[in-house]
Request: fold
Amino acid sequence: MPFGYKNSWLCIRANSPEEVIEKIGLKNPRVSNWNDGVYGGHGVFVSPVLDGYVLVIGWEGDILDTNPARLDELAEKFPELQFFSTHRVSEYHAWVKYINGVMIRGYGWCGCDGTVFLNKGGLTPEEIERGFTNLLPNDEADWDAYETPDEEYVLELAAAWGIDPGFSAKDYPKSMGYICR
Reply:
């Protein structure tokens, strides 16, 4: 089931959803279909394994503001961890990628207050290929000389780094995941 708009999620290289549930510390997992898990509003949805990744959809969209150290800690538990968040109303858009516990790239923008709250690491090849090379670097930069990201940036980069939240390029078999607290 497509997702992504006005949402936040983790994309984790893992062998099973149960491994992710345990290492993240999620509680009360119960089997769920994608529709109830993504749009039911009863917790976070942990997907089955998709091309070597497990998604945790609806997960702590404000973590980069409230507890970025928690994201760093989680990244140490997996060979690869990505975080994405997008909300068009507040123009909050963020993406982070860790490899072996090290943040190789992170960018976050909140248009409601004009803040670049994260800009760490060099551009990834996927960002360069998509032309994401002229993003506003910091709060003091001349806005007219740079671009600011929107939700499409986030969705395109998520697809390029691992799993397309729109599932437009791949047809996965029907499968169940878990709703957790």
